[in-house]
Design brief:
- The chain is of the alpha+beta class and 484 residues long.
- Helices cover 49% and strands 10% of the residues.
- The chain is built from 20 helices and nine strands.
- A hairpin with a 7-residue loop joins strand 1 and strand 2 (332-333).
């Protein structure tokens, strides 16, 4: 006990109890969304009959390269059960279960959330290859060492979370400044709201703001990502002000786009720098257990050592975005939109039930849940839920190289009306029987002007570019064939 009396003055962060409460419950809510996404989509994308079966992946990739519980068993029953177990555990933490148990049990709960989600990410291949997957894992790992209602928040863990938030924001700012010229001449938002992977219900309106406002937006973004993050390391109230500015800019991004849980998780991390003692007072705690202090210090030392590679990446002229430097995703590098697409292209999948193809063949479109399709359909808000197939379709339209391994299996599943695959889509125009042929066309999409919107009621205008995939059909036991 005497030893811990020496620890207490610097180990505990007085005044951050309410901030920790908000941070932990919100982080658990993000975990809940992530596991729910896995429960709804993993089978179709990565299951036994998925587009990129995880079972085949774990057979060719060793455990040390991609640690995952699914190396021991990887079938649909196990993966779906793990996803729903994650949902249940995350929901329990949101409800306060981690604060109602002993400290060691709380740490076990957070560790289980991290290990379960790591298992999905490490076998998820391109469908889990997004920066916010690593961000959730890194934040989730740090949450193991945040303590619970039985002990004061450890100052080391809060500082590590600020360091994570700093890398998210500053890294994103640097990759923009070093990347596309339009970020430096303040013109990127002339295009971004229209060409981003998944527009939101308000993106059309953001796109039609004046160019002067777009330039102000970009300038404000540079301030928010290249200057404000340094304020996180200043004494209060500067740190709280910096965190508040980050929260405001992230809410602006929430309104203007659908970026899964990236923006929400960034907001959650910002609470590590917010002093809310004026609202909650300062609860009294006994000295933290010695074993807990030791574990936190060891974890902090590990993070400091592993931070060498992300820190070096930040100052490098060849900065990389969204890279993990270790298989456990403990300390990563982040960034987004180092380059901005000027023109939006979309792949439209169509099917027909005609046995023979002629000039008069009637083709019917498959509609996706989030990505643009029907020009009259207003984009919907899905974030923080992540529509993984919709995002990959955006990448596929950029280059056929992004379709490798999963696009042809997708077409094959449509040809047989595969139910798990069809659940990923908004509509199936062949509910009675499968189509005889499926093809893919490439269109140029743009937001309609205000005048076009008034006249046609459409949110988008599209123009045919070319055939992306010729018609494909199933022919007996010979498999899939392209029809000339």
């Amino acid at each position: 006990m005497a030893a811990m009396e020496w620890f207490t003055p610097w180990f505990s962060a007085s005044g951050y109890e309410l901030s920790r409460l908000v941070l932990q419950r919100a982080l658990a809510a993000v975990y809940l969304v992530a596991f729910f996404s896995a429960a709804m989509q993993f089978r179709a994308l990565l299951g036994e009959n998925g587009l990129l079966p995880a079972a085949a992946f774990v057979r060719r990739v060793p455990f040390r390269a991609a640690p995952s519980l699914f190396h021991w068993r990887c079938d649909d029953r196990v993966t779906v059960a793990c996803a729903w177990a994650g949902v249940a555990l995350a929901a329990a933490v949101v409800a306060g279960a981690a604060d109602a148990v002993p400290l060691w049990a709380s740490m076990v709960m957070w560790a289980l959330l991290w290990a379960l989600y790591l298992s999905f990410v490490n076998v998820g291949q391109i469908f889990y290859g997004f920066g916010w997957e690593s961000l959730l894992l890194e934040a989730g790992f740090l949450a193991i060492f945040l303590g619970n209602a039985r002990t004061a928040p450890p100052v080391l863990t809060l500082w590590l979370m600020r360091w994570l938030l700093f890398r998210v924001e500053f890294g994103a700012g640097l990759i923009k400044w070093r990347g596309d010229q339009c970020w430096r001449d303040l013109t990127c938002l002339y295009y971004h709201h229209e060409t981003q992977p998944m527009p939101s219900p308000l993106s059309w309106y953001f796109h039609h703001l004046s160019r002067r406002l777009h330039r102000i937006e970009v300038g404000a973004n540079h301030v928010a990502q290249l200057i404000v993050p340094f304020g996180l390391f200043f004494p209060q109230p500067v740190a709280s002000v910096a965190a508040g500015l980050i929260i405001l800019t992230q809410l602006w991004l929430v309104l203007s786009g659908n970026f899964s849980w990236l923006n929400w998780l960034t907001i959650v991390l910002a609470f590590s720098a917010v002093d809310m003692s004026a609202l909650s007072g300062t609860p009294s705690y006994g000295a933290a257990p010695l074993w807990f202090a030791v574990v936190v210090c060891v974890a902090a030392l590990l993070i400091v050592v592993l931070s060498y590679w992300p820190a070096r990446n930040l100052v490098s002229r060849t900065q990389q975005m969204n890279r993990s430097f270790n298989a456990l995703h403990l300390v990563n590098t982040y960034g987004a939109f180092g380059s901005v697409t000027r023109v939006r292209q979309e792949i439209v999948l169509e099917g027909t039930d005609d046995e023979r193809l002629t000039a008069g063949t009637t083709w019917r479109e498959y509609e996706f849940k989030g990505k643009p399709g029907n020009v009259r359909r207003l984009p919907r808000q899905f974030a923080p839920y992540h529509l993984r197939l919709d995002w990959q379709m955006w990448f596929a339209a950029l280059s056929p190289a992004y379709t490798r391994g999963w696009f042809e299996p997708l077409v094959e599943r449509l040809l047989v009306n595969d139910r798990p695959t069809l659940r990923l889509l908004r509509t199936n125009p062949f509910s009675e029987q499968p189509p005889t042929h499926v093809r893919a066309l490439l269109y140029r999409y743009r937001f309609t002007t205000r005048e076009e919107r008034r006249e046609t009621g459409a949110w988008w205008h599209r123009a045919f570019v070319r055939e992306f995939l010729p018609p494909v059909h199933v022919s007996g036991e010979q498999g899939n064939h392209r029809t000339p």
